[in-house]
Specification:
The complex is a heterodimer. By secondary structure, chain A is of the alpha+beta class. Chain A is built from four helices and eight strands. The radius of gyration of chain A is 16 Å and the shape is globular. The longest helix of chain B is centred in the middle third of the chain and has 9 residues. Classes of the chains: A alpha+beta, B alpha+beta. At the A-B interface, strand 3, helix 2, helix 3 and strand 7 of A face loops of B.
Chain lengths: 162, 83
Amino acid sequence: MAQARVLIQTQDFDVSAQIAALHAHDARVGAVCSFVGLVRDRNTGPNAALRINSMELEHYPGMTEKSIEDMIDAAHARFDIFAARVVHRVGLLQPLDAVVLVAVSSAHRGESFKACEFLMDYLKTQAPFWKKETGSAGATWVDARVSDDAALARWGIQAKNA
Amino acid sequence: MNVTLKYFASIREAIGQPSEWVQTQSKTIGELRAELAQRSPAYALAFAPERPMRAALNQVMVDASAPISEGAEIAFFPPVTGG
């Protein structure tokens, strides 16, 4: 059975187990690169003193999985990698919680490093998730960042999000 | 034609429901957005032209010029903030 490349779930994930599953029994793999995104309790900028108590992650079931699958296909087309997987949590999360894992395998490290960053930059601007933060000031939807569009543009992808 | 509409995040909150079926004469996503803005004050606010908005057609991100077809699933949502 083909391994799941994209998991969208409410539960926490085990980074070690996910990485092990990514390259299990594949002795071609010389490099695995992974990224973990976490929930912070604060933002930078004008509201830096405010604390976030929880974060709600909404998504578009169906499109979420499909869009990330397409991003992984794009990573395979651009980089010499063996496998990639993404786990992204949804639902109610707290500061310190893991939100997202991107893991990539290749023969040598250069391709994995690049593909991992590519997938994160792509996901940040094109995967249908929305974050709502709750703190002492109430609940607010997080704004998309222009800097994320710029990050995606570095890979030659012009896609407007923010 | 008949299409299914889905709304997410602050757009959903502004409209007050996550989805609905509509009959429309609009030919593109952009026309449909303008048409929806006419429905009521709440829709006008949700679909105000200055409000940044993204759309998906049958679960693929598209821009305002994308043509719509009978039975399509069309989603309107704010810029995404995942990862």
